[in-house]
Amino acid sequence: MNAPWKAGPMGNRDPFAAYICDETSLDVLRPVVIEMGWQPEKCNKGGLRNAVQSLSISASPAILLVDLSESGDPLNDINALAEVCEPGTVVIAIGQVNDVRLYRDLLASGIHDYLLKPLSAGQLRDALTQAQAVFTAPRAGEGEAAKPHVATAVVGTRGGVGASTIATSLAWLFATEHNSPTALLDLDIHFGTGALSLDLEPGRGLTDAIENPSRIDGLFIERAMIRANENLAILSAEAPINSPLMTDGAAFMQLQEEFRQAFEMSVIDMPRNMLINFPGLLAEIGVVALVTEMTLASARDTIRILSWLKQNAPGAQPLIIASKVQAGTAEISKADFEASIERKINYSIPFDQKAAANAAKLGKTFADANQGSKPGAVLREIASAIAGVSGDEDADLTKAGAGSSLLGKFDLKSLLGKKDKTSGGKETEPAE
User: Fold this and answer.
1) Residues of the chain with CATH 3.40.50.2300
2) Class for domain 16-136, per CATH?
3) Residues 4-17 pLDDT 10s
4) What class does CATH assign to 150-411?
5) What are the tens digits of pLDDT across the range 382-399?
6) What's the per-residue H, E or C state across the chain?
7) What percent of the chain has pLDDT over 90?
């Protein structure tokens, strides 16, 4: 059964009740409850099963805090709770399991938030205040059409192919030329250039989100994101390089959920290692812009990432973008590259070093600083194609390049071994 809890008026119900397994957590909770103006007697000993038993014979409160620590099957038990909860109840779960899949599944079931033990007074205060805000400022009613949202991930097959340049340019184009409220998330936590390319300070927003995923909500997004212009907001970081990334990915999932509510477009600059560490990040992505170059290494990794996407993000549309293309200097011809990956290159962006330097000097995105250039024109075509998806659920960005190459399956291994012994081991340029 789907959880019945939806935002609604409190009515005459009790404003709050809690069912907590341990005394330590209860001791932290009670002073916060008193501070909120609620009755500390509503903080009951016992976890989720006790809550189900009690609520089966009594009215549900407006806000319910329930402990999953003693539950062997939290998701199944949450469904049992849904059977006895009245519509309108906002449920906050707490527990000891730090697992991003459980977090996502709980949110998908309708849970408002999930807090990890040991609890702190500040953590509880923030969570309960956010839950209370659901009633004072509810979201749009169910009868209203959902605001369309297109999420794009930009992934480079190799370092230095220009994925970050393309990500920031697409975000800028969505926001300015397509007039769409747009979020840019730079997931290169230590060395990201998203804010730098827009001549902005990254701030602590992304770092705070990673450290405190439970704080992420609409208000947090409004305060933490840095505004580049009226329609473009960015979330990035310059974390100390002696501080490793310590997260289970819950913050990134929650950020994506809030982006869907607050923006029409979102662009995620996603380093390759993020695919490996947090495969669930692409579960809700509509378009994956796979940025490559015409080299053997990029051909190999394009094949690998396309295969990964097929297994882990079957709902995302891959868009193959060849970057920094220079005529006559590629390791692999376009025809051989397309044959090796068994699909067409959707867009080719010409190499223009002067244009890139110009953007850096001006502190602008490449697309903004070089609006009359050939690379800028291609970026506009890409942005228009992706933005068009929001108005057409059946749009297929890769239709023109779908299917196998006319040359049939290309043997990349034979290409890797294809050397001209008379040229000192240098690779011969395949014919177009």
Assistant:
1) 16-136
2) alpha beta
3) 444 444 445 788 99
4) alpha beta
5) 999 998 865 444 455 554
6) CCCCCCCCCCCCCCCEEEEECCHHHHHHHHHHHHHCCCCHHHEEECCHHHHHHHHCCCCCCCEEEEECCCCCCHHHHHHHHHHHCCCCCEEEEEECCCCHHHHHHHHHCCCCEEEECCCCHHHHHHHHHHHHHHHHCCCCCCCCCCCCCEEEEEEECCCCCCHHHHHHHHHHHHHHCCCCCEEEEECCCCCCCHHHHCCCCCCCHHHHHHHCHHHCCHHHHHHHCEECCCCEEEECCCCCCCCCCCCCCHHHHHHHHHHHHHCCEEEEECCHHHHHHCHHHHCCCCEEEEEECCCHHHHHHHHHHHHHHHHHCCCCEEEEEEEEECCCCCCCCHHHHHHHHCCCCCEEEECCHHHHHHHHHHCCCHHHHCCCCHHHHHHHHHHHHHHHHHHCCCCCCCHHHCCCCCCCCCCHHHHHCCECHHHCCCECCCCC
7) 40
